[in-house]
Amino acid sequence: MTGRDLDPTLLRLLGSGEPEIGCDECFAQLDRYVELELAGAPADALVPGLRAHLVGCPACAEEHESLRALLELDSVS
Amino acid sequence: MSALIAAPTRLEEWHLDLHAQGARRDEAVAHLHGLLLRASRFEVFRRRDSVPQLSAVELDELAEEAADDAAISVLRRLDDFRGESSFRTWAYKFALLEASVKVRRSAWRDREVTLEPEHWESLAHAGPGPDDDAENAALLAAVRDGIRTALTPRQRQVLVAAVLDGVPIDVLADRLGSNRNALYKVLHDARRRLREHVAAAGFPEVSE
Asked: Which chain B residues contact residue A35 at CB under 8 A?
């Protein structure tokens, strides 16, 4: 069993244990991160700690999903 | 929601006029607001099921307020834009933040947030089910013991509210007179302490 194999409730309580950035830094990097993702670039390597933060922070995860979805919509409009 | 119909098509250089004066700046600010309104309406529309008490008119008013607030933030922080993404993407995130925060606040406006909880006792009903083995039961017991003994009252309060009660971090920050970044740090530290406690109780794998 590793942290990643935990029941979802226990994982939310314990966190992944991986190094992560905070909410402010996540916001600062989010635009760059999403554009890297959509370009197929190694976003997690280029913006370390952001993916782990999204796993631990539902609010930032929502905003990440929305920015990505909005840019995808723009790309087909 | 008419602003969702058309994606922006103007060249990215328009944003340089936000630094200009007079009519050029006015036109750029109007264009900026249009982009922000597009994003805030997009976000409000995505999250509308979480605020069923709001009418279509109220939802659009909320999106307008979010766009207005985002415009203020963007104009105040223009010098923070480093060109690491397109300006449009950079501006969008301000509108999405404002809109998502407003939706979450509205969704929780009339909901009680218990800030002196013993709700973690409900953890007995989470996680492993009746068919799980003794190891899982022991892990659950270690987590519950950690919540009770290893955390500070503030850490316990934030962890239980944010994780077990599902209170959004920015709503919780409002109720506690804090801010999202500071409160997430409390949550992060609580999780680290809890992992250390659980690892010391015989589950080192949770810290791997």
From this structure: 85-86, 89
